[in-house]
Amino acid sequence: MKIISRHETSSETKSVGRYPVSINRSKTACEGGDYISLLPDSREGAISFMQAQSNSISESFGFYDIDTVLRIVVWCNMDKINVDLIDTDLLKMAVIKSIPFRLPDTGVMCKIKTELISAGKENVWSQFTITEEDKQYLMLPYDFFTIDYRVNYSINRACLDDIILKKTVC
Q1: Same domain as 29, residue 57
Q2: Domain, as residue range, for 55
Q3: Which among 81, 7, 70, 1 has a CA at the least distance from the CA of 38?
Q4: Which among 23, 60, 149, 169 is least surrounded, fewest beta carbons within 10 Å?
């Protein structure tokens, strides 16, 4: 998830809003924008994204040790999701149940652990520009919730490749 600011240009440049977006990895040269909006929208059944709340990196014995707090944001259109999960608390518990406490090593990352910190209804939308019309997507039959996790993992420095910049085509 990335936050972008959209600007209008006239005699002066001014910011007109902040929006949560995802980079469009399916974009082709002929169609598709650079970003996909993650704002609530009645056409969607559900939207989820993660925000890093804090991040620290330390180094020990050839490893980078990362400690981060991630917030998972889930917005849903209750009319378009599984009838068994019609209650937001049940949906929240299903998401929590799907996240393991320990993940297998990936080769580069190891000792991956997650710890549930909190699950609630933190209003994340206040940091974004939401029009009066779009505020309807924050009331029934729509709902949202947040889940905060502490995630710890290590990266073996010897497994990291050097950064190689691509030559520009144009």
Answers
A1: no
A2: 40-159
A3: 1
A4: 169
